[in-house]
Every structure is written in structure tokens, then in C-alpha cells.
Amino acid sequence: MTMNFDLFAPEPNPNLLPFDGEVEDCGLILDADQAQQYFDYFYRYLAWQQDEVLLYGKYFKTARKIAWYGDQDYHYHYSGMAKQAHLWNPLLLALKQQVEAETGQVFNSCLANLYENGQQAMGWHSDDEANLRSPERETVIASLSLGASRKFRFKHKTQKQTVDLMLHSGQLIVMKGQTQRYWKHMLAKSTRVLAPRINLTFRYFYQDAKRPES
Ligand SMILES: O=C(O)CCC(=O)C(=O)O
Asked: Can you tell me which atom of ligand 1 is nearest the CA of 186?
């Protein structure tokens, strides 16, 4: 069964998921002008670079670009790939503080994604790496959209349930509780979307997490 949250003017909703996790839709936390100004600035000034992913034993550069920022120059090594966070850009830091005030959560990093158009997307995955988990604190990821509206989807890992919603410019959702454990998410492709979109995912990164692959 698919639940569809396709409202054009998103209303806050405390939980979009039917079970096994929590995705809070905080609605629009920026008005259209603010969202556009942030979009224009981040599009121009964040340190965008193509991401590299390992698929079936081969490295690929993604079409979408990423930029990673944090309280420190965190390092992340995964399957032979090394990534390093930049120290906060001042405007991104101000927005992080606004998101912290909206959500009551603390974040120490932000992974930004840039999709130039609807052909650029992100496949099914969950953000359940060891560096995002702690026995003391549940994984909370706040995701802020800027620019073109895009379809975002959740799929339960063992049941047939899916949940779809449109993400609009200025809209904030928060993935928390058991969401990363039981659900995957993805950003769908669309031939109709020609405009770019930036997504900011505010996260808490544990630099010293023990990972089996490190
Ligand atoms: O662009 C989006 O909304 C999805 C981003 C995402 O899934 C991620 O950063 O893990």
C-alpha cells in the first residue's frame, strides 16, 4: 500500500510513517523569498563536488553534487573512499541554528546535495552508517529542501508499505526514531523537473564510531 502526501501547501504532520519510525513534516519553515535567497547563495558559494559511490565493485562519480560541512573537519572513510568536512559556512551555520530551534535537536554537520534537474536523483538507501548512530541518542536527520519541488519516497525494508510526498522549497522534514533501521528513502527522477534543487541534511556525526569496515 502507498500513502501519498502530495499536498501543494504542506501542513505540519507529526508522523508521515504508519509504523516502525517517525518522519515529522514541519511544513514550510522559510517563506518563498528566504528560500530563494538561501538557494541562490548556496548554489553559488558551497564547495560542490561530485560524489563518488561504489557499485558492484566499481567506483562511479554521481551526477548530483555534494558538499559536507561541520563543527570540525570530520573524516569519513568508506570502502576506500575518503571524505572530509569543511568548516561551517556562516550562512549554513545560521540556518542550522534555525533548524535546531525548530526541531529541538542538536546537529554538528550538514551534508548538502545539489540536483541540477529532475534527471539527477538519489536511489533507495538508509542513513544507518555507524558514524550516524549512538547507543545514547537516536539517529535524527533534519532535511531542508530549497528550489524545485521533488518527489521523495519511503519504502519499508521488509513490508510492502511505501509513503510518497512532494518536498517543496523551504520545507523541513525530520527523520527520527527507528526510521533508518526499518525504512529506506529515495529522491525520484522526473523528466518534468527542469529546475535545480538543493537539499540540506543536518546530522549528528560521530567521528570515533567503531565500524567493521574501517
Ligand atoms: O535530496 C533529498 O531530499 C534526499 C537526500 C538523502 O536522501 C540523503 O542525503 O541521504
From this structure: 7
